[in-house]
User: Fold this.
Amino acid sequence: MGIETGRRLPKAFFILGVAMFLVGLAAVGALFLVPAVWPGHVAPTAVYVVGMGTPFGLLIAIAATVWQGRD
Assistant:
C-alpha cells in the first residue's frame, strides 16, 4: 500500500497542476475577451485572481513531472 500511494501522489499533483494551468489560461483569455466583446466592461476581480494561478499550476505540473521521473 505504501509504494502504491507514493506513486499516485505525483500523478495527482500533475493533474492538479495541469488543471490549474488550464483554468488560469481560460481566465487570462476571459480578461482579454470580456472588454473586446462588451466595450466599457471589465472582467470581475475573481477572474484576475484565478488568472494569477496560471504560473503556480505550471510550476506544480513541472515539479510533479520531475518528482514522478525520479521514482
Q: What stands out?
A: The radius of gyration is 16 Å. The chain has a mean pLDDT of 86. The longest helix spans residues 2-37. Residues 2-70 form one domain.
